[in-house]
Amino acid sequence: MDRNIEISHVSKKYKNGVTALDDVSFTVGSGVFGLLGHNGAGKTTLMKALVTILTPSSGTIRVCGRDTAAQGAEVRKRIGYLPQELVMYPSLSVFDFVNYMAGTKGIRDKTKVHEALKAVEMEEYAKRKIGQLSGGMKRRVGIAQALIGEPQILVVDEPTAGLDPEERVRFRSVLSRYARGGRTVLLSTHIVEDVHQLCEELAVLRRGKLFYAGKADGLMQRVEGKVKLLCLEDERQLAGLDRKAVVLQTTYEKDGIRVRIMDDGGNFAGAKTVTATLEDAYVYCMGGKYYA
Ligand SMILES: Nc1ncnc2c1ncn2[C@@H]1O[C@H](COP(=O)(O)OP(=O)(O)O)[C@@H](O)[C@H]1O
Ligand SMILES: [Mg+2]
Predict the structure, then answer these.
(1) What predicted TM-score, i.e. pTM, was given to this entire model?
(2) Distance in Å, CA 83 to ligand 1 centroid
């Protein structure tokens, strides 16, 4: 299988002493690949290293077989990037903004701009000012500027944060459509649902360390058969529960408290076993609901 991105023993220590990445290695094939982790886990740092905005303290990254350190220009030709905070000019029209961004990549062909807007379903808004767009539309324009020139790899940093459900669904379809035919879309998010819907493979970062990389099914297998649902009558029964099991979720209902737990130690043999979700697996990996 073709691995479009190969990350090998990558570490990054910032000047202030923060180790944002600590010996991270994994590979990414074609399709949509999810990069999951809490805030501060190192997702943005890793993406910046991939797109050659920053240099790792150690380790190597290869994109389509090219080394990011030695062949930066070759790598940049093959990558489109939507940063977490993309600066847009509110007074420019959608077309002019994407055309401007195309120009910075040396692309002067306006049909490419139209193609990019079409790919994100924004062509009918080409003349509208950026300042008049909804959050979801702005995000799609962000994708348009990233996929201009049809790069083999599309790197998108938390693209669905703050979107309403309808826009999120539309956004997912744009990304999965782009990922067809051997391309790679690398998507970072802290929203498990995005990954669940879109990605066959994922990586989980936790405080700069790689916690898991591989198929989503493999992550779920870690919790399968051990996720249980307890029904408690009052709050006092909650106390001490997290010493016996990992608490995944608590919901307060009229007739009591429903608690989803991961019963790793087998302390709740009599409790009802429920079908595990990717969310269960992720929360468990992160050390439970109360992990800060
Ligand atoms: N430019 C920087 N200088 C110093 N520390 C940084 C810088 N950028 C990020 N960090 C720190 O590195 C860690 C990882 O950050 P980041 O890669 O942004 O994580 P994520 O995108 O997963 O939220 C955090 O502790 C963050 O505060
Ligand atoms: Mg980030």
Answers:
(1) 0.91
(2) 14
Ligand nearest 24 Cα, by number? 1
Indicate if 173 and 31 belong to the same structural domain.
yes
Evaluate whether residue 290 is within a structural domain: no
Residues in CB range of 163: below 8 A, 6 or more apart: 135, 136, 139, 171
Statement to judge: residues 95 and 208 lie in one domain:
yes
If you measure from the C-alpha of residue 48 to the centroid of ligand 2, how many angstroms do you get, rounded to a whole number? 10
Determine how β-strand 58-63 pairs with β-strand 66-67. Answer: antiparallel
- Between the CA of 36 and the centroid of ligand 1 the distance, in Å, is 15
172 and 68 in one domain?
yes
Q: Each residue of 54-72: pLDDT tens digit?
A: 999 999 999 999 999 999 9
One-letter amino acid at 257 equals: I
Note whether 163 and 78 are same-domain residues: yes
Q: Are residues 68 and 167 in the same domain?
A: yes
